[in-house]
């Protein structure tokens, strides 16, 4: 706890800091909830992206999970070994490997999704549907602004 009168508390309104703290807190909460399922946070992110986007290449998984390429490759290999995903060469461009969920992967996703959904409900407790929609719109705009700077 800061000593009274010290510091200007500028971080309270610094958006990158707030977003980082929120993300970190959300990740810590869901990590502990996922522990019981045998699916860690990184594996959950890959499964969730594949569920959301269907069959996609590794580069796109890296982009959408915001994870390093070696980590994504390792996780996809593990998931494939367990029968949760399937890899195949792209017909359009054989340099690309496409990844998709299998029926077992879909089942694994569905077994963990209620935890993730409950986690989101806790974070958005007290928000109206309109406020949630507005928040999502604002966050998408922030993301678009950042992407435009790259």
Average pLDDT: 91
Assign the CATH superfamily: Winged helix-like DNA-binding domain superfamily/Winged helix DNA-binding domain
Which regions contain 5 or more consecutive residues with pLDDT less than 50?
Answer: none
Number of strands: 3
Instruction: Note the total helix count.
Output: 6
- Helix content estimate: 55-70%
Q: Could you list some keywords that capture this structure?
A:
150 residues, 3-stranded antiparallel beta sheet, 6 helices, mainly alpha, Arc Repressor Mutant, subunit A
3D structure, described in words:
The protein is mostly helical and 150 residues long. The chain has one domain: Arc Repressor Mutant, subunit A. It contains six helices and three strands. A three-stranded antiparallel beta sheet has the order 1-3-2. A hairpin with a 7-residue loop joins strand 2 and strand 3. The termini are far apart.
